[in-house]
Amino acid sequence: MQRIGEIKAFKDRNLKLKGADIATQRGWTGVPNFILESNEISIGAKLTYAMLLKYAREDDQCFPGQDRLAEDMGSGVRSIVRYISELEEVGLLSVKRRGQGRPNIYVIHIKASFWKKNRQR
Fold this sequence. Notes:
The chain is mainly α. The protein has helices spanning 8-11, 33-36, 43-56, 66-73, 77-89, 112-119, and strands at residues 61-62, 93-96, 105-108.
C-alpha cells in the first residue's frame, strides 16, 4: 500500500516540522477537520478516532487492545467500548472481531465522502 505522503496530490501539502522539540519528537497525529468540527459524535469518540489514527500510522487498520486505548487516553475500558460503538454507529469505524484474547482490528474510514454517504441512511 502506498503511503499518503508518497501520493503526488498530497506531497506538496504535507506539513513539515522544523525544530522539533520534546513536544513533537515522538510524532504527531493529524485528524481531519470534519471529525473535529462534527456535532454528531462526542469528544470522547473524537479522541478515540484520533488515537486509532495514531496507532494506524498511515496504514488502513490497527489493532490496539481496549485496555491499551483506555490507558493511553486516561479513560476506562467501558468508556472506550462506548466510544468505539459510537464511531461504528456513524460509519467512521468498522470493527473486525477476532475472538477471545485477541485484539479487534479497527478499520478507520477517513474520507469525508464516506461520512456524507453514511449520514444519509
